[in-house]
């Protein structure tokens, strides 16, 4: 079934927190006007209109006489409008457009009250732009949630009606959202060469010289040769930068104002660093294990700026520091961690370890949600898919495996390279994955559907680090050079032919991260940290309710509470995050079958003699004995179908036979 | 080289003074709002849970009657006024805002069987066991005056119900026959009978105002047209119907509260099959009243609970009960469609919210927006099992709960028997009768 196929569903976007009410009101207003006619209809209507003369009101007559002079009554007035209209070049450029864009551009019927009144103004002047403003197709498509290409399922007329209404509503929402694009304040940056000039030849110094002072200040080098190679991480709002050196140097700073927030040396190798944006992670299991138990709840330092916490993968264990540099937790269950990823909407900290385990730690309650054995040896290549929170692990046999905490097995395995995978990155729309391997190849994969490779390129030394920017720029760290490739636009893969920018650093690249909402790429290398200017990398317009770089203390607190309230359970991570809104046809059929089984008898068909299927009657489980019942409950616990959230939907079926069995068991269990 | 870097002026994003509102720029781009569906699902789950947390429907209990409350009437013009008649012949007028009785009348000897207000709201009528119909002024007597009815009609038989025409000075009573009265006369304009049994209630149609419906103890529901002397048609059910109520929005729809624990919504044009059978009560249904929107109705039952049914659903969406409430005899949905009143055996009138978790009082625009958003989310995800389970859960008193279980078993057994009979008899000799048709005995025109 199509997305949002459930009857009567309408999908307010996450963004439309407060927009629903106004939206409903507007919609009702629009419903009053009859459906818009096709292109050939209006003249006909006009003729009808002319035939059926509207009773003339005394005030109307007066205004027309005084204002338009000898202009005739309303019907002929309208006719004149009709004649004038085609002179506007309105149809020249929109001749070939889909239904969605054409609809609002059509002139409304002359009978409509809202339209005629402004046209017949006192001065007799006409509205030069009648009807609603046109909406570009591309923009409207960006906001569309229902796939129109799929046909509506065969259903009863009532259901069908509701589906159609839902679809129309959905279309209207997307148009409204597209129209609101006009209000966006900022334009994305760009870098263009003069004719024939290669942008890759442009040096950072040239860019710094050319741009304004505020932007030029964003380019800086931190010369930290002593504690070398650095890994770094920007906070989701893009305000704070955390970095950790291999030789134990950990620091966070507000990189815009260059204010140092904390600086410590953990006296141990630091392998990875992540800023974790939650205020009170209370791992109850681990508090007893903490070597320096911090019961300083009364200490004021805890409440000064508990903006961010820092998860640092140290030589042995995972440590969590607050932004004063005070160690809060030492999580010994995550040992010898090599890579960290934070899933902000699930409050999960995913850690990949040398032991081959992928561990998910829920930082809001401090519990380990899942510890999955990848069975592929040492893990040191990991990235998250920001679209669906699936973790991508790169392995030494050239495969990339996709993981969710709900499944013990990988959701998918993709063979990407001959030889090991060195780096993986996924873009913000979750459409493209870039991988680089020991075979010196850089490949881009399409993550929709069958994981097809789109383009590949051999690099002289191979890329050790990859990162995608918000607008789809791909940065690769190749020994001491950073190459950046750009695509056509936001939704297109980067073309690997010609780099967009290159930059040589003073040491080997060790970490790459694009700063969100700023045209800046942070590079950690042997010689310290470099903040590069990459025009056009970041999304220019942030959403104030999601991640606001300029938010105040109060706003951040409010956001934190809201974010915690809508923490997405870890079990909901699957390849298609929209699956929850779809009808789970498999379970539906299963349930139907079980119901028939339970009731023994279904309604007989109208035609022919009634023959009753002899269905097996389920016998109740034997509690207290070691067989049947226990076995079922054990299978239930691991089955995703036993999860009450998930029973309405499916994960992408990986192992159909075992899944259906456990689903059956679940349904049967439920039936009893 | 042409270059432009993203460079924001913080003044455009930060408020100037502390007195300003915070600036919140929005961008509805889907990539900036990931996990839209799971997050909305969690929001819907939270909204559903909060709805159950705030479900506190009971508002007030109006006590003062010295016997069971037998009938209730709404004031047509004043939302705050409600009238009630008790089994000891006492009529009380209540003010709902003050939650106080403002007037007490000893109207009849024996039960007050029926009470109805005139459409203009200046007077009301009562019928009682003492074979009289009395008209009373809505306003109390002046100082020094005695509490006396405006008119008294002495009848020959006991009247069991009364209803007033919605537009004209005509009212109808029922007893052994249905009588239509002019307010000015002491004898009925016409009397209509069909069969010889006592008629328990009569109701005027609020839209097609000449139509009446009545239900009698010989298990039938009879429809009349006031303009002609004979009844229109009748439908005979399995068991006795206690009351009927017309849908105030759809002229041809009415709902009958039946002794067989069910309610039947009929389309009066096709009486042979009810539009919907509403079953959830576990004892006889005694009264029913529609919401003014015509979308829902409330029913009162002998099982000490009241239930709210959507018109097009066979199961109730809400059940109200308290420890102290006994058999509920009469129920009314107030004219602003926000409250429900019920009168019960243990002499109390209870006031409930029609939406259990609704916040009363004036809402700010943000509250309203949040409410609407949550409502839409709940609607969107209502079919998800986890949410459905929470939304559907109601605590029931043990008696009702166990009776539901018992009746489920009985129903299952009957169905099994039917299936077995069907299975073991010659094909075509046993026919399957649908639940809707099962309870209709005959339709007579």
Brief descriptors of the model:
heterodimer; A: 672 residues; alpha+beta; 4-stranded antiparallel β-sheet; 16 helices; 29 strands; 24% strand; disordered N terminus; disordered C terminus; B: 445 residues; Methylamine Dehydrogenase, Chain H; 5-stranded antiparallel β-sheet; 5 helices; globular; rRNA processing (chain B); WD40_rpt (chain B)
Provide a concise account of the structure shown.
Chain B: Residues 354-440 form the Sof1-like protein domain. Chain B: This is DDB1- and CUL4-associated factor 13. The complex is a heterodimer of chains A (672) and B (445). Chain A has 672 residues and is α+β, with helices and mostly antiparallel strands.
Overview of this structure, please?
The complex is a heterodimer of chains A (672) and B (445). By secondary structure, chain A is α+β, with helices and mostly antiparallel strands. Chain A has a domain at 581-672. In chain A, 25% of the residues lie in helices and 24% in strands. Chain A contains 16 helices and 29 strands. In chain A, strand 9 and strand 10 (327-335) form a beta hairpin. The longest helix of chain A is centred in the first third of the chain and has 23 residues, at 157-179. The two termini of chain A are 29 Å apart. Chain B is α+β, with helices and mostly antiparallel strands. Chain B has a domain at 59-353: 7 Propeller (Methylamine Dehydrogenase, Chain H), CATH 2.130.10. Chain B is built from five helices and 30 strands. Chain B has helices at 36-53, 365-380, 385-392, 398-424, 435-438, and strands at residues 2-4, 58-63, 69-74, 81-86, 90-95, 100-106, 112-117, 123-128, 132-137, 151-154, 161-164, 170-174, 178-182, 188-192, 199-204, 211-216, 220-225, 231-237, 241-246, 253-258, 262-267, 276-279, 285-290, 296-301, 306-310, 318-320, 328-333, 339-344, 348-353, 440-444. Chain B has a five-stranded antiparallel β-sheet with strand order 15-16-17-18-30. In chain B, strand 4 (81-86) and strand 5 (90-95) form a beta hairpin. Chain B starts with a strand and ends with a strand. The mean pLDDT of chain B is 94. The interface between A and B is large, with 94 and 57 residues. Strand 1 (190-192) of chain A pairs antiparallel with strand 1 of chain B.
